[in-house]
Amino acid sequence: MTGKARRLHRLFRLPGSRALVIPIDHVVSMGAVDGLDDLSAVVRCAAEGGATAVIGHRGGLGQAFDRLGMPLVERLALVLQLSGATNLSPEPTRHRLICSVDEAVRSGADAVSVQVNFGCRRETEMLGGLARVVRDAERVCLPVIVMAYVRDERGTIDLTPERVVHAARVAAELGADAIKVPFAGAETIDWMTRIVPAPVLVAGGGKDNHATFMAVCREALAAGARGLCVGRNVFQSSDPMAVLADLHAMLCGDEAGTRVTSAVGRCWKDA
């Protein structure tokens, strides 16, 4: 087994080789985001709630891991986000590389992530950055996750099935080891997972009603998604650990699983 295969197994270690990933990289692009005031508390709950990985930027995520210590954080795969842009920019969809594979290796990352916004004027520049990351990551056996979105220049997400599937296939063709996509309907995810040769992670999107959100997750998994990449519907919940328990049970095929709603489950809301 190669180093990359071992790292991917760490990420997709739930039954059926599934993954539950918690992204906490929102603050770079969106600014002050409710629920992300204390990244250490979010990471703690992710680890104790059964998530397989967290995605974040080197500063905040690195400090959170340092504060929590090895016994807790070794439960999680660390995915370092290498690209970024802010909503303050006149080009908020232009995600440029702001960290490197070498820096990820020095941080102890298990994988790296790059966002590509397809359909924007700077698409080819972002594809070039992705190609560079894939080449550098291959040299050190580090998996690459691509966040593949189709957006207009203002950042509005396009969910046209043909365009969403096209973006995912391009990411795979350029060497992505896993691809995060928005939910564009069960039929689109089914089509995508049949023609894209890389595991698909479906994004949780903005905060939604819990029942509606869970129904979307259930549809995505039934359509062939290999995992979920869920941020705001977890860390903006009034009971994040209950949401994590529900997601973990769903991914493990046991939706009647035990819900963890103790004081620990409220940790980042009470921190």
Describe this structure in words.
The chain has 271 residues and is α/β, with parallel strands linked by helices. It has one domain: Aldolase class I (TIM Barrel, Alpha-Beta Barrel), CATH 3.20.20. The chain is built from 13 helices and ten strands. The strands form two sheets. It has an eight-stranded parallel β-barrel, surrounded by eight helices. Strands 4-5 form a two-stranded antiparallel sheet. Strand 6 (111-118), helix 7 and strand 7 (144-150) form a beta-alpha-beta unit. The longest helix is centred in the middle third of the chain and has 17 residues, at 123-139. The protein is globular. Residues 256-271 have low confidence and may be disordered.
Itemize the secondary structure elements and their pairings.
Layout lengths: L2 H9 L7 E5 L2 H5 L8 H10 L4 E4 L1 H11 L1 H4 L3 E5 L1 E2 L11 E2 L3 H6 L4 E8 L4 H17 L4 E7 L10 H13 L4 E4 L4 H10 L4 E4 L6 H13 L4 E3 L2 H4 L4 H12 L15 H4 L1
Parallel strand pairs: 1-2, 1-10, 2-3, 3-6, 6-7, 7-8, 8-9, 9-10
Antiparallel strand pairs: 4-5
Helix pairs in contact: 3-4, 8-9, 10-12
